[in-house]
Amino acid sequence: MYIVQIASECAPVIKAGGLGDVVYGLSRELENRGHCVEIILPMYDCMRYDHIWGLHDAYRDLWVPWYGGAIHCSVFCGWVHGRLCFFIQPHSGDNFFNRGNYYGAPDDHMRFAFFSKAALEFLSVSNKRPDIIHCHDWQTGLIPVMLFEIYKWHGMWNQRICYTIHNFRHQGVTGADVLWATGLNNDAYYYHYDRLQDNNHPGAINFMKGGIVYSNFVNTVSPHHAWEARFSDVGCGLNPTLDVHHYKFGGVLNGVDNDIWNPQTDRYIPHHYDKDTFEIKAKNKKDLRDRLLLRDIDKPLIAYIGRLDAQKGVHLVHHALYYSLNRGAQFVLLGSATNPEINNWFWHEKHHLNNNPDCHLEIGFNEELSHSIYAGADIIVVPSNYEPCGLTQMIGLRYGTVPVVRGVGGLVNTVFDWDYNEEHLPEERNGFVFFQTDNHAVESALGRALDLWYQNPRVFRQLAIQGMEYDYSWNHPGDKYISIYDYIRDK
Ligand code: ADP
Fold it and tell me: What does the buried/exposed string (b/e) look like for 354-368 if buried means 16 or more CB atoms within 10 Å of the residue's CB?
């Protein structure tokens, strides 16, 4: 099959979170299976150009219709660790992708509506006719709408769309301007409950709703989250739309890229290991301590890696940190916050704990350091409020770092409690799970993990090794996406 992925991220060149990992990892898996995959991305000024090989202009004069006129763009092309990527660079005063950040600008809706329009225009004029266009998250929600309302009439009637929702919280809710800009200029038609009208704000349109209504198949990134999205407030108002379209909606667990996240080959960690040489992991722990100036002493090391925001249960992360220190453990945090209050809060904690030899807070995004932490820590905490899939617990498992998680979304599908589990045999269990959102709940699960580490290190080691035996690679999700593509191709 010929598959084009269109997204706002692709790791490692553009990565703000799990979306980037998924776009890269899935593309690689599909190519390994013999499919032809291309990726279309915005050409941000702040992306990691050092991860692109052979960057050159592939299409100089792309004129993208915008409002009544057109914006001149160049399309660059290069390889990101073997994946063929096209980068769209508009030449206009709007400077859509020269903002020093991927997200967070007041005109994000316009920026990504433009990107979506440009990606389709590029496919159309360069005569690319993929079997499958795979779009991701709200940023590309208008692509299925424009494909079936506009580009279908420009020779693209055979293309089928798979739309993956990585986070229901951000849906792209905005006003009518975007419709006029993109050529969907029939307000009455699109402001309809069955099309793009936002379910909660009748005066607004919703990109993600458009994506759901117009795509041939829609999925979120774990089976449990698919259920939550339909039947709980995690659907963030889209529940009725998912109900109407339930026949084409499902959940596919994300995979973890084995080439990037593999303790046997990871180029960012000094000592390679696998489950048969598990004791070598301790050398990485020592290295991590040296690097972060933590004292080297016989204590468990607990880590948190992830965005610092409400979704990730930031108050519980904070509590886990102090609880761990009180229990005589060490704690390493790697996280970045876009919310200024949360950012200030953690900077304050960082200063407060600066001289503590058992604690290190690294505020910012640091891919290299994240690998060292996965390899060096004993336990990783993931106390999310909601978690569509979650990669950090799966990466942790891969590195023999025992996850302590809240039982929501994809965490339910991937972590199985050591003590309390009716569905999994003891030899299938791999972590600790709690369910409530209060401090006691974190303490109960983290406390059990620490008790096991202190009181029964041999069993703790066994639990870590059991986690390493899980195959959360792209192998199974690869099969699932191929079945989806096959299914919609025949429609
Ligand atoms: P989300 O997509 O909601 O941010 P996921 O758990 O799905 O969360 O994916 C997070 C990915 O981003 C993981 O690969 C994790 O290692 C990485 N990551 C998150 N925060 C940081 C950070 N501050 N520095 C480096 N990597 C990070």
Answer: eeeebbbbbbeeeee
CA of 21 to the centre of ligand 1 (A): 9
User: Which residue out of 222, 309, 365 has the highest number of ligand 1 atoms within 8 Å of its CB and is therefore the one to mutate?
Assistant: 365
**Cβ of residue 367 lying under 6 Å from some atom of ligand 1:** yes
Phi-psi region of 409 (alpha: psi -120 to 50; beta: other; left: phi over 0): left
CB 302 within 8 A of CB 333: no
Burial tier of 407 (Cβ tally within 10 Å: 0-12, 13-18, 19+) = middle
pLDDT in tens, 131-171: 999 999 999 999 999 999 999 999 999 999 999 999 999 99
Pocket test for ligand 1, best of 336, 343, 370 (most atoms within 8 A of CB): 370
Phi-psi region of 406 (alpha: psi -120 to 50; beta: other; left: phi over 0): beta
How do residues 345-365 score in pLDDT, each as one tens digit?
A: 999 999 999 999 999 999 999
Each residue's pLDDT tens digit, 75-98: 999 999 999 999 999 999 999 999
Q: Which helix (H) or strand (E) holds 397?
A: helix 392-398
Which residue, judged by its Cα, is nearest atom 12 of ligand 1? 17
Ligand 1 mean position, distance from CA 196 (Å)? 31
Cβ atoms of 65 and 46 within 8 Å: the answer is: no
Report the share of the chain in percent with pLDDT over 70: 100
Is 271 a residue whose pLDDT tops 90?
yes
334 lines ligand 1 (CB under 6 A): yes
Sequence-ordered strand ranges (E) for 259-317: 301-305
205: Cα separation from own chain's centroid: 24
